[in-house]
Amino acid sequence: MSAPAYAAQLPGQDQAAPVTPETYVRLACDPAACVVVRACAGAGKTWLLVARLARSLLDGYAPQDVLAITFTRKAAAEMQQRLLELLQHWNRLDDRALADELARRGLPRADAALLQRARALYPTVLAGGTQATVSTFHGWFAQLLRAAPLRFGIPLHFELIENEKPWVQQAWRRLFDKLQAEPELRADYRALVARTGRSTAAQLMELVVQRRGEFMLAAQAGTLAQGLDAPEPESWPAWRTRNLAELRLWAQAWGACGGAHAREALLHLQAALDASDAQQVGALLRKVMLTAQGEPRSARNLATRAVQLEMLRLGLEGDPVGRWDTLASDCLGVVQAHDALDIETIHAWALRLGAELLGCYEQLKAERGLLDFSDLELHARTLLADADVSAWVQTRLDRRYRQVLIDEFQDTNPVQWQALQAWLSAYAGDAQRPSVFIVGDDKQSIYRFRRADPQVFEAAASFLRQGFGAVLLSAQHTRRLSLAVLDWVNAVFAQAPAMAFIAHTTESRVRGHTALLPAPATQGEAAAAATPAQFMETAPRVRDTLTEPDVDAEIGKVEHDARRVAALLRELMQRPCVEDAHGRLRPARPGDVLLLLRKRKDRMDLYLRALLAAGIPAAAGDSEASLLDTIEAQDLLALLSVLVSPGGNLDLAQVLKSPIGGLVDDDLLALARCARETRQSWWQAAQTLAERDAAMPALRRFMTLAEGWMALLGSLPPHDLLDRIVAEGQLRQRYAQAVPATMRAQSLAQIDAFVHLALDMDGGRFLTPYAFVRKLKRGLARAPLPELHVGAYPQAHAAQQPSPGGDGDTWDGPASPHDVVRLSTVHGAKGLEANIVILADADSRPAANGPSVLLHWPAEQTHPLHFSLQLSSKRLHPAQRQLVQAELDAAEREDWNLLYVAMTRARQQLWVTSLPMRGQAQWSQRLAVGAGATPAAVADAFPKLPDGAGQGAIEPQAPATSPAMPIEIPWLGRPQTAPAASPANAPQADMRATRIGIALHALLQSASATARPDAVIEALDAPGVALQLGLDAGEAQAAIHAALRIVRSPQASMYFDAAHIRWARNEVEVAWNAQAGGEPGWGRIDRLVELDDAVWVLDYKLAAGSLQTEHYAPILARYAQACASLRPGKRVRVALIAGDGSVLEWQVPEAINAPRPESPRSA
């Protein structure tokens, strides 16, 4: 379907009409207009919302008059920040530039007074002390409820539950106590467990708690289990009596001349005719009349020609086959009626017991002054429906909202909309009603599991159009997608009629690239194509269960794909393929890449490990990752647990083995042996060993520190204690040295985030470390991973094109320790974008859940019209079948939406991988059809993968540092931007020399780790190196020759000769702070070698003409200064090594090598 890039439907118009981009922005940003915007991914929805916020302030609205709602705290904070940055930017502009800015936001003619007002907004907002309310729905609801009258029954100082699971577990304990006291309730529970199993019973009951908002509203409206009240079915003995004569005729006919199937049916029929128990009669008749799948048995095997003649001879009237079909269908009807009654009975038990569990949960919250998110929504719905109370609350908060803006409206759930609608309805016909602006995209509605319902968007648009005269705007023009990505998106979604997809256009002129990599051959396909000899080599063999671990075949496929993705990224990082803001191509950087997965469990860790093993910095970067799942947070939590309760042996073992303690396995074994021999706890044994065993300095150090920290437990709050632990224990330095360089920034950020968690948790009101530890261990707190900012976000939002703007900015900044590949689930990637998106393992789908809630709640209704529990997809009540089909249709639509979200994260390149699937490979089939080519054909596109990608093509690289190394590089604080290794006026090397230089570094790094680097390099195959490193054959040969000349050079060979080297490392990162002289920064030493007389800092240069030390003196001095304290008494020497083997030593200033006292740590 095609449509204008921008369209508007004004009040009084029956349909939308095309408009210009300028008109679109002018209508959307007008604070006096009520506006509903539907805009595609990358169309600038957030830009529009911030622009309208600024326009509202410019038009005289006070900050307290403005309410902006979004769906995450992070998004709310970003929106607030972007508004202030925009106002600050306006404050600094001259008249002409400011007039252009205002024109881009719908004010084409700005006079001097307007320019002065715009320039004054920033200081006015800062000086006013009151900012606009920018929050989430739940944050706004909580603000309202804290000011609500007492008659609403809301706890005066309530605490918000962010993780309800631990409280539900406590509610279970209360329910079990109640079951002991109430025999009738206990009988229901036992019956439910007997019919469904304990696990399913618990899931059914917890569904009531999880969907308590809808459950309570349906209960109040009397629509619980609507339609699940089937009449009493005919009993099986009664059905047998009614059909007894005919059943006996069939028994006689089968006994006289029936075949094998008939004789088997005869046995069950005779038993059914003789049985007295009703349930047994029913079970036997099912076996006679129905198949195992529950369908009527065919007459072909039971009513053969001979049986038919016998039936007629016995006096049967009519066609025997027809009579059999009628009898079987009649039996099926009775079976279905009994099944419906059975489901109804189980459903009644589950609802009653679920309501009891919910009652225990509500009682627990009431006793402790707790509210959860559902409580916020329901209470806000009640409060906002009362116009007088709502106005009173706003007045009390000094808020009278005249501008209401809501972002990502497609994620709104029905209860939230009911609360908002109840409030807005009170303004019907009121001239002082607020101006409402909502923006969203139905195609990005992917949170049904959080109760989001896209039909709410349609209901809201209709309500605002009828009651508020809203303007309806739509935008199908994106500023994000490259031409190649756009073409693929349009082609894929043209085959999704349920989405009513409108083809997009794009502002981008970047060509981009897309590819669907084929799934590797399945074992069966490989076997079919193999020769007999190959088949025997690859045929499965019997595993030795005593010596070989069981390997999950599915996990093996994922690991294969993870290595393939790592190989692809290494290839993209070696060749110019990303277009910068000036239209120039450059190699990809880690920060350019967003790796998307459909499932987190059993997937993300495998891809993360593969990237790190390939030397590619990567980190989980989505909203679903938890700080408390990281090893740094777990180590710190274990340390606090040891301090407050020293008897925990497992916690102590974890801390001692971590970088906090620094013990090795032999130390832990000695500690365990001492504890066993002395029959003491590990803590007591550690005290004993620390006092008597001088050979365990690491244990003595830890115990001294831990006892000091333990003495502070009663006097310091958790945050201050943790701050002291991090400083005194040198945790930042220790973790920086213990983790690979690619993970260093993430590791340090996670330590800082855990320390801040102690301050942020519940406003810092937990004053004891014990309470802090207890809350974390009981799962009563949630903490997102710290965000690693990839590049710098431009301060001047004016750089963004305003018609209509962009959701994000292309990053062209320098590489930094935060330059990492981000891994995310598709659900967690909303709001993210990247130059390169890799959708890995595209066909994996989350496992089908068990029981679920069936809900029918039209958006225009104030309560659900139906609420029931679905036991399973195969056990449905007839009244549920239509609802189940509606759920399947909604799930199918959301699956398309999820694919849309995944594809539209890509600015320039989109790569998709898939794995061999047992079932239907749904996404890869959609993508292949949409691309208009087979997967194999698409995979042939540039750039090609190296041969053997995913099959060991990328070897794991050793971490840059290790806790066991003889020499430690001191970590001198957070690394900043690395300075250039050449002066600004040095000639720019051409791309060919750059690629050869990179390859030279890689070859020397790999070969120097071996005993005979010259033999290793000489044995290299130039075509193989070319494929591995993305070079042509000539470049690979040049790199090999240069590396060989260096390691064989009389001047340079000693730096690679294992017989003379005491210790060496490659690619060593060093950092310096401002106190070390000048600006803080970081750099990477190509090779660091300790010989008998000196520590050598080596820097490789491809061309001999580059050996001009004055060009590199500043950075070489930094390197020397950073390494000067490594070996007191040894000089630091620095040399440049060229590709022809020549060596030029740079004279290190004497001040750097001046004698200094030996530090205790070096000693």
TrEMBL record:
Its EC number is 5.6.2.4. Keywords: ATP-binding, Exonuclease, Helicase, Hydrolase, Isomerase, Nuclease, Nucleotide-binding. Residues 518-831 form the UvrD-like helicase C-terminal domain. One of its GO terms (biological process) is recombinational repair. One of its GO terms (molecular function) is 3'-5' DNA helicase activity. It catalyses: Couples ATP hydrolysis with the unwinding of duplex DNA by translocating in the 3'-5' direction; ATP + H2O = ADP + phosphate + H(+). GO terms for cellular component: cytosol; DNA helicase complex. It is an enzyme of class 5 (isomerase). Pfam families: PDDEXK_1, UvrD-helicase, UvrD_C. InterPro entries: DNA_helicase_UvrD-like_C (IPR014017), DNA_helicase_UvrD/REP (IPR000212), P-loop_NTPase (IPR027417), PDDEXK_AddAB-type (IPR038726), UvrD-like_ATP-bd (IPR014016). Residues 18-482 form the UvrD-like helicase ATP-binding domain. Residues 796-817 are annotated as: Disordered. This is DNA 3'-5' helicase. The lineage of its organism: unclassified sequences, metagenomes, ecological metagenomes.
